[in-house]
């Protein structure tokens, strides 16, 4: 269900936005910017050259160090 936002503060107060901004893990794609246009939020993430499937198909499992 789409939700219209009355204010920019209301949109950026979303739990998802707050959580994504606070995740400083090297294995998590970083949220760079949140853009609101016509009451629709657009999330801009850093660029990743390969997707999770491409990373996993060449490995049997991630090591503990890679996960942490």
From TrEMBL:
Entry-linked InterPro entries: Kinase-like_dom_sf, MAPK, Prot_kinase_dom
GO MF term list: ATP binding; protein kinase activity
Signal peptide: none
Protein kinase domain span: 1-68
PROSITE patterns found in the cross-reference section: PROTEIN_KINASE_DOM
Pfam families in alphabetical order: Pkinase
Keywords: ATP-binding, Nucleotide-binding
Name of the protein in question: Protein kinase domain-containing protein
Species whose genome carries this gene: Ancylostoma ceylanicum
